[in-house]
Design a protein that fits this description.
Belongs to the leucine-binding protein family. This is Leucine-binding protein domain-containing protein. It holds the Pfam family Peripla_BP_6. Keywords: Amino-acid transport, Signal, Transport. The chain is of the alpha/beta class and 435 residues long. It folds into two domains: 233 residues, Response regulator (Rossmann fold, 3-Layer(aba) Sandwich); 154 residues, 3-Layer(aba) Sandwich (Rossmann fold). The chain contains 14 helices and 18 strands. β3, α5 and β4 form a beta-alpha-beta unit. The longest helix is centred in the C-terminal third of the chain and has 21 residues. The chain is globular, with a radius of gyration of 21 Å.
Length: 435
């Protein structure tokens, strides 16, 4: 059942909806407006298979900069967003984009969505410049790199939990669904289909490690190339020993939609979980009715509360209802968080001004920001967000790991949030392909 305390909890947070702009306006009060612009950079996939998110990351940055400038900018200076195409997100492409932003444009900060193929290669040129870099790469490699030299990487922040926690969280969420009694699995088996990127591999490894703690076992594993649209071979292998759950940690929405369509040609009584891709409308648009009942998760999904709903409406009003507001919310939110931290520090820091950027970094660690997808709060030991409830049991200080189910593929928002409390808006339902 949906928690009856949800509305009370979320309405208590709703006063934060205008917090960013209102606070900046107060900090800017009495400041003379300056003609000097503050360049803010971004590396985003504007072309290639991940452009569906990259374009929204660009939109989120630009929307935040526009609103911040309307509130007086940062201490009277307005922000100028600059996005460079990171294309297929290889280490070479992302690093080249970062160097261009620093060397040619002199950006004071880089505020990104994700670049999953870079594997921290961009960290060193950014650390050399001593500027703030905030991203959503969702990589356990960030923790390891940051801890290797906390002084060098002081200004590099990962604004969401590492992908590892997706794998840890899935068995926890499956266990909750099983305990609710609606789903009575015919066995305890999980079949793992893993994309060939490190992001997907880390998630699958964590599922395998965590599953036995909750009475599940991984009975099948196969790595598939990225990208891929032909799923018949791996699905036939899974059908030979039908599991209770199929978990596909590849995340390209178009590829996953093809997998779901091909699965329904001969479905088994298995829950189907896909990593991230079904959050985007492209998945439901391609899969159509085959999408109904699919499970997916993220830590940067817009919450179905007053703050989240208001943001989604504003985003659609600006970019159209076909725009994907969820990825846009990530860069939008962290731009506000950065602007507040910089204003409280007395201003931004250009490349080479590490002393000023250390003040901003300290403020990013010190001050919590309530985003449309939950709480932005950094663990200072790794400069990364932590998840609720996997790591922290307190939803007021951690970013919620959200489990969704596709309820209506034709709806404006096809997915409904089913876990965790107190954020959930709907209950789990058995998928329509179950016999």
């Amino acid at each position: 059942m949906v928690n009856t305390n949800r509305r009370r909890f979320l309405s208590a947070s709703a006063s934060c909806a205008a917090f960013g702009g209102g606070l900046l306006a107060s900090l800017n009060e009495g400041r003379a407006q300056s003609d000097e612009m503050i360049p803010i950079g971004q590396m985003a996939s504007l072309t290639g298979p991940l452009a569906v998110d990259g374009i929204e990351h660009k939109n989120g940055l630009e929307m935040a900069c526009e609103e911040i400038n309307a509130a007086g900018g940062i201490l009277g200076k307005k922000l100028s967003p600059i996005t460079v195409d990171s294309k297929n997100q290889t280490a070479e492409e992302v690093t080249a984009a970062a160097r261009l932003l620093i060397d040619r444009h002199g950006v004071h900060a880089i505020i990104n969505g994700y670049n999953v193929g870079a594997n921290q290669a961009e960290y060193d040129p950014i650390a050399d410049a001593g500027i703030i870099y905030i991203h959503y790469n969702t990589s356990i490699g960030h923790h390891e790199t940051f801890k290797s030299d906390t002084q060098r990487y002081f200004g590099i922040f990962m604004a969401d939990p590492a992908e590892y926690y997706y794998g840890v969280g899935l068995p926890v969420m499956l266990d909750q669904i099983r305990k609710a009694g609606v789903w009575k699995p015919h066995n305890n088996k999980i079949a793992l289909v893993t994309g060939s990127l490190p992001y997907s591999i880390v998630i699958s490894n964590a599922i395998r490690e965590t599953a036995p703690k909750y009475g599940f076992e991984v009975s099948f594993e196969e790595v598939v190339p990225v990208p891929t649209t032909e799923w018949g071979s791996v699905l036939n292998k899974i059908r030979a020993d039908p599991p209770a759950v199929i978990a596909n940690t590849h995340f390209f929405p178009g590829d996953l939609a093809q997998c779901q369509v091909q699965f329904l040609q001969q479905p088994t009584n298995s829950l189907f979980y896909y990593q991230y891709g079904p959050l985007l409308k492209a998945f439901s648009d391609i899969a159509g009715e085959a999408a109904r009942g699919v499970l997916t998760s993220t830590v940067i999904g817009i919450l179905p509360d007053e703050i989240g709903t208001s943001f989604r409406k504003a985003y659609w009003a600006k970019f159209g209802e076909k725009a994907e507001a969820d990825p846009g919310a990530s860069t939008y939110s962290e731009t506000y968080h950065y602007a507040i931290a910089a204003a409280l520090a007395g201003g931004t820091g250009e490349p080479g001004n590490a002393d000023q950027n250390r003040k901003i970094a300290a403020n990013l660690q010190r001050f919590v920001y309530r985003a449309p997808f939950g709480v932005l709060r950094y663990d200072p030991t790794v400069n990364a967000a932590i998840p609720y409830p996997t790591v922290s049991s307190d939803p007021s200080i951690a970013m919620p790991h959200l489990l969704y189910q596709i309820k209506d593929p034709k709806a404006e928002v096809p997915k409904k949030l089913i876990y965790p409390q107190p954020y959930n808006e709907a209950d789990f339902e058995l998928p329509p392909w179950f016999k």
